[in-house]
Amino acid sequence: MVRLGNQWDELLKDEFASDYYLKLRQFLKSEYQSYTVYPRMYDIFNALRYTDYEDVRAVILGQDPYHGPGQAHGLAFSVKKGVPAPPSLQNIFLELKNDLGIDPPEHGNLEAWAASGVLLLNTVLTVREGQPNSHAGQGWEIFTDNVIRILNRRENPMVFLLWGANARNKTALITNPAHLILTSPHPSPFSAPRGFFGSRPFSKTNDFLRGRGGEIDWRIN
User: Fold this and answer.
1) Phi, psi (5° rounding) for residue 70?
2) Given its phi and psi angles, is residue 214 left (phi above 0), alpha (psi -120 to 50 degrees) or beta?
3) Predicted pLDDT of residue 211
4) 161, 101 Cβ separation under 8 angstroms
5) d(CA 70, CA 73)
6) pLDDT at residue number 134
């Protein structure tokens, strides 16, 4: 049984007991036994483990984990310290510099954002090595859609940052007028010049949150 050690345990207990999740669990058991799968099993739910329900002030939605060795550790767009920042993350740091004047950090670990209230959630939480989207359609999308629905019902305002077409498809799940939705192209090298650069998501998030529960510290130590 999954134990996150915070409010998510109670909020997601029905998900973890549902038929679709039990089927997904069996799929994952087979995958981890037969293939190299990322992130490691104990890191799958780090996004929820590191950012408790009541602490979420912004949600950055990714697609699925990085599929290269040593990269994924359960937080969307983040990599472990010592691992070079992938191109999409480099572009995120470039926009952060242009938006807020924050210099790119020496590493790509975004745990500081998670601690500041940013839920770094992928729509699919696992992947085979070298095979992007290999775990799509197995049930993760149901799970993460329901996480978004739970957050949508919360009264305290938050910002949903939806980067790319897959993330923007989740817009229909966010119906509560208390929240702000910011959409843009994906920060990948192919898409970033078409509207991610110059979208100023970090300052817009803090402009909205100012007076509504506090700003996010976007610095990364």
Assistant:
1) 75, 5
2) left
3) 85
4) no
5) 8
6) 97
Within a 10 A sphere around the Cβ of 193, how many other Cβ atoms? Answer: 11
Scanning the structure block, which residue is given the tokens 């058991």? 29
| C-alpha–C-alpha distance, residues 142 and 150, integer Å | 12
User: Which residue in the block uniquely carries the two structure tokens 């995120």?
Assistant: 92
Round to whole Å and give the CA distance between 8 and 203.
28
Q: What is the DSSP string of 41-100?
A: GGGTTHHHHHS-GGG--EEEEESS---STTT-SSSTT---TTSPPPHHHHHHHHHHHHHH
Compute the C-alpha angle 148/138/149, nearest 5°. 10
Which residues, other chains included, contact 62 with Cβ-Cβ below 8 Å and sequence gap of 6+?
76, 77, 120, 121, 122, 123, 163, 167
Amino acid at 128: R
Residue 213 has pLDDT above 90, yes or no: no
Which residues belong to the active site? 64
Q: What is the pLDDT of residues 69-86, one digit of tens each?
A: 999 999 999 999 999 999
